[in-house]
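Ligand-bound model needed. iron/sulfur cluster.
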Amino acid sequence: MDNITGLLKSLKKTPQLLRVNLRTNLFLLKYFGKFKIKKINNDYILHSHLPPINSPAYTKFVDQHLIKNISGPSHAQIGLTNACPQKCSYCYNKIRSGEAMDNDTIINCINELGKMGVTWLGLTGGEPLLNKNIVEIIDQTDKDIAIKLFTTGCTLTRQKALDMKKAGLTYVSVSLDSSREEDHDHARGYKNAFKEALRGIEIFLNAGLHTSVSTVLTKEMMNQERMLEFLEFLENLGVHEAWLSEVKPSSEYFWHKEFVISRDETDFLIKLQDQYNKKDGMTINYLGHFEHGSHFGCNAGIKMLYIDAFGEVSPCVFAPITFGNVRDMPIPAIFEAMTKHFQPDRECFMNKNYPIIKKHYRNISPIPAEDALAILEEVRHTGIPDFNRIQGGKS
Ligand code: SF4
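Prediction:
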């Protein structure tokens, strides 16, 4: 389908788009022009980091974040369990521990996030499919929140995929780091990771869900030859989107310059995405493209927050700092305490500030609020992302 049809569908469902200030709309039109809008079932989808552009979640996004410019988050992730059979070296969660949230607490958190303005929710873990209440959790989530499931595919059945779709799941992303079985299994520390991922992708596609792979790119993958090999492999699988991110310096092992993405590597991936997305077929959605200073920048702790499986609230899944636990304080109060120390930035908070985190780390993860505040005092702002410059609001 062509983008004009998608945009007209969006306008029909959300006529208040015409009330968004002209400069913001022009900015969004230019950004949308970097993608081919896809129709999957009845959803018109730019990419899976935004709600479908004809959905109630998108209407809410426009109302609350583009017109009213509220100070709450638009995006959040929540851990449904910390259990996982895989052992990825770069996992942002494996050193977190505590008492797992029960089902009612998770559902209450999601309802609270919805009231605060969240329009896109990532279900993560651990392996979220290991939470036996996942269908109920999706079912209980307000329909003005787009839900994206991040999974390894392990334990998935066809019936579970159909049940999650019926309950309202919008997007699913299966972890796949390489087209080479041995590389993926090695990265995941799990012998059958590759086979389970391919099986999961097939089940989700057959269930009719928007299906992407989420890929954590190592330095070895960041060259034309390896990326084109990988993207061709994904096209042949028939997935709708490649959701790409680099390894983030979220844990001690990766707090070294040689592991952190360079500016040249970021530019390479952005260019690759822009070229690739000109053609029909699979969409590339590199997180560093969305979060680049020329687009929406880093919104950790402002438009994004993360609640881990133990109830700790962090500014982003990759940031190993907490501002409180949902069992001790209402989420809006935790968010308020957190957000006043953050501002939209042209650079990824973690890629830029891991040396400060490293300096304050005392073998407790996530780092408690008192130490987090000392870290944030040392953080220096890089500049306002283009979107915020145009839109106004917190800067
Ligand atoms: S810290 Fe990095 S990964 Fe997290 S929201 Fe900011 S840009 Fe995204």
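The chain has a mean pLDDT of 95.
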